[in-house]
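>> received
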Amino acid sequence: TQLLLLNGAHPPERNTFETGLRRQMKEWDVQLQKLEKTRLEYQGEAAQKLDAALRELRKQRDSLEQSISLGKSASGSAWRDFKAKTEFAFEDIKTKLNELAHKKWV
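>> returned
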């Protein structure tokens, strides 16, 4: 069944989902900043590899943020598809960020 919403309000699940994602993304930003500071400790190939990994992660994070904004207007099955794809992207970024944080770059 489709939930009818007044004045463009979203059901609580959507709001909770979006709020949780945005909160986690802020935490990721802090972790990315720490990794960018750590990058200054490296030179040569290690620095280049870390730079490339950080650029790719930022790109994925920015893409996820854009997707969240676009997903606000999704409804019904489009919302469920959006949520599934967003959860997959979220887990991918989370895994990659964790790997970067624990990788030795020397």
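>> Residues 1-9 have pLDDT under 50 and may be disordered.
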